[in-house]
Design goal:
Blueprint lengths: L2 E6 L5 H9 L7 H6 L6 E7 L3 E7 L7 H8 L4 E7 L6 H13 L3 E7 L6 H15 L8 E4 L8 H14 L10 E10 L3 E9 L3 E2 L3 E5 L3 E10 L2 E3 L1 E2 L3 E8 L11 E3 L5 E12 L9 E7 L2 E11 L7 E14 L4 E5 L6 E9 L5 H10 L8 H12 L1 E3 H6 L5 H13 L4 E3 L2 E3 L1 H16 L6 H8 L3 H15 L2 E3 L2 E3 L11 H13 L4 E2 L5 H13 L2 E3 L4 E4 H13 L6 E2 L1 H8 L3 H13 L3 E4 L2 E4 L1
Parallel strand pairs: 1-3, 1-4, 4-5, 5-6
Antiparallel strand pairs: 2-3, 7-8, 7-15, 8-14, 9-13, 10-11, 10-15, 11-12, 11-14, 16-19, 16-21, 17-18, 17-20, 18-19, 20-21, 22-24, 23-24, 25-26, 27-29, 28-29, 30-32, 31-32
């Protein structure tokens, strides 16, 4: 299925042209009939033997209704850009044409209407003017038709031209993740809530469970229709009416999204690639309206990066008054408040922009946004964020998961990104993180993963994933979940200050040292040596050298060669320690799991 849409200046005959093509009057509102002016989007259909029912959308031409124009235009595949022969290319012709460009509409046909009202020379002048406006754009080779909707002249030829252009369109995408931007909502007696829109990216079926955004409401599709024909399923690029169960008419309005396998991310702060039209100037932090899907959202525009080459394409941050729903690559149009004048448009680059920290990363990585396809968007997202869960990338895009996996594999093979467990990682960020982990471990003694991650400013899980590679390269040792490196591994390679403390404690023998009585510098070294296992803490205060502790432990355990249970006095006799030391010693040996206490006795574990 395909969608055809009109565009063009007010009173250039868009609605009458559709009536000539289809026999259907798209002006359905009483005010439209009275004023003879299209106010809201209208709908019709035309039958082509090869394509079946082709939907037609009529949009208003007046500048006051540009929001409605975008709501109708966003989902069309082939646009009829209508220019009246007696008026020529007008301001709203230009705005509508730019909207088609900004939304990435695949093909257009330029239609000169009202040829019955002018002479041949005027028609040729209008033809040349249209060609000049299309030159240098993606539509430079677009077909052109000359018609009179009033008399019917050229209408049959236009129908054939439409058929030829439909044949050149790619097949409507079916990624298995269908969604629909709601453009109309109403109730039908006996059925309840009905929404209409252009179905994209997959198929809806009767009884499907879907999600309505922004409510995040799970609802059920009871019935599906297209142009008053009941369907078992809706197909991509088809005008579709959904009868929804589980939501009232009053709870949903134009702009809402109906999605299955929802990939839209809620955000109030996004990063975009924005093309500013013509010579229009914009100030930083200005109020704007963003026309996205069939919705209009109020926001502020913040320029994040302006190119040095004078290009009219900028990287811009958009902060919304209220959060909305986005996906990377989603097109949009920007207007001044009130929606009368178009500023420009573009597409979403990142659905969540984190403020100053990300801005610094953005300035460093903006060159990574080499192009604007899926590969480039994924690579840029990873480059700016540093590390991104692979599942988040897959679940944030409308494409089929297998297609996204293929893109990820290509990026890995090209070394634009790397994979670390479940994360996709920017190579430069990964290398910098590994260096930071190395420095953190070598700059302290016995840090655990969280402590290392905090010092490096990285996610603890990412730190855990990188640690094996860092450890293998730099000789870092994992000892009971704490990490040691370089001069902290063996007594012979300890730093001089640590080695002196160790020797002092060894010299104390069975007297040991009391941590509470040591000076602050010595306390720190003692704690580090305890972490390393060179010293042993009996009770948090009394500290023995490891060799002394091991010898005392051996003497205690040797007593069980001649008795089944051991009293405290017997342990004192075996070790020569006073009661001040013997109880902490026995408790520490019990902590090691070598003995157990039963009443006043110790037994071998």
């Amino acid at each position: 299925m395909f969608i055809i849409g009109t565009s063009g200046h007010i009173d250039h005959g868009k609605t009458s042209l559709i009536r000539a093509l289809t026999g259907i009057d798209c002006d359905r509102l009483p005010e439209e009939k009275q004023r003879e002016m299209t106010i809201d989007i209208g709908f019709a259909n035309i039958e082509y033997p090869k394509f079946g029912t082709v939907s037609v959308i009529d949009v208003p031409g007046h500048e006051r209704f540009i929001r409605n124009m975008v709501a109708g235009a966003w989902g069309i595949d082939l646009a009829l850009l209508v220019v009246a022969a007696d008026d020529g290319w007008m301001p709203q012709t230009e705005d509508h044409f730019r909207v088609l460009e900004l939304l990435g509409i695949e093909r257009i046909i330029a239609v000169i209407n009202k040829i019955d009202m002018v002479d041949d020379e005027t028609i040729e002048l209008v033809t040349a003017d249209i060609a000049e406006h299309l030159a240098g754009t993606r539509y430079a080779d677009a077909d052109l038709a000359r018609v009179s909707a009033r008399t019917g002249a050229g209408v049959d030829e236009l129908k054939q031209l439409i058929l030829q252009n439909l044949g050149k369109l790619p097949k409507a995408g079916d990624a298995g993740r269908p969604y629909l931007y709601v453009d109309r909502v109403f109730t039908s007696k006996g059925y309840g809530t009905i929404v209409t829109g252009t179905l994209k990216n997959g198929r809806f079926h009767e009884e499907d469970e879907v999600t309505v955004l922004p409510q995040r409401r799970a609802v059920r599709i009871k019935k599906i229709e297209s142009h008053f024909q009941a369907l078992a399923e809706g197909t991509p690029s088809q005008r579709t009416a959904l009868n929804l169960a589980g939501i009232a008419r009053e709870e949903i309005e134009r702009g809402a999204i109906v999605a299955r396998d929802n990939f839209f991310a809620e955000s109030g702060d996004i990063l975009t690639r924005l093309r500013i039209l013509g010579e229009r100037r914009i100030r930083n932090n200005i109020g704007i309206e963003v026309l996205i899907g069939t919705s209009t959202r109020k926001a502020k525009l913040i320029l994040a990066h302006e190119p040095d080459d004078g290009s009219r394409t900028v990287i811009a941050r958009i902060k919304f008054d209220e959060p909305w729903f986005f996906y990377p690559g989603q097109p949009f149009v920007v207007t001044h408040p009130g929606g009368h004048r178009i500023i420009g448009g573009g597409f979403v680059v990142l659905t969540e922009y984190g403020g100053l920290r990300n801005m610094r990363a953005l300035r460093a990585k903006v060159g990574a946004l080499a192009g604007f396809g899926r590969e480039d968007l994924i690579a840029f997202s990873v480059a700016v964020r540093g590390a991104v869960p692979r599942a988040d990338v897959i679940n944030s895009l409308p494409d089929n998961p297998k297609a996204i996996e293929k893109i990820i594999t290509t990026l890995i093979n090209e070394k634009r990104i790397t994979a670390q467990g479940p994360l996709l990682v920017d190579p430069a960020y990964g290398a910098a993180s590994m260096a930071a982990i190395r420095d953190a471990v070598m700059g302290a003694v016995g840090l655990n993963i969280k402590e290392i991650a905090d010092r490096c400013g990285i996610d603890p899980e990412f730190c855990r994933l990188l640690m094996p590679a860092v450890a293998a390269e730099h000789g870092i040792v994992d000892k009971d979940g704490r990490y040691y490196a370089g001069n902290a591994v063996t007594p012979d390679t300890l730093s001089p200050d640590r080695k002196k403390v160790l020797d002092d404690v060894r010299a104390k023998g069975r007297e040991g040292v009391e941590l509470d009585k040591a000076d602050d510098a010595a306390k720190g070294r003692i704690r580090e040596l305890v972490k390393l296992g060179f010293l042993v803490s009996l009770d948090g205060s009394i500290i023995f050298h490891r060799e002394v502790y091991d010898e005392l432990k051996r003497l205690v355990l040797a007593e069980f060669d001649r008795r089944d249970k051991l009293t405290v006095p017997e342990a004192k006799d075996a070790t020569g320690l006073s009661r001040k030391y013997i109880i902490p010693l026995l408790n520490r040996i019990e902590t090691d799991g070598a003995i157990k206490r039963i009443g006043d006795f110790r037994i071998k574990a």
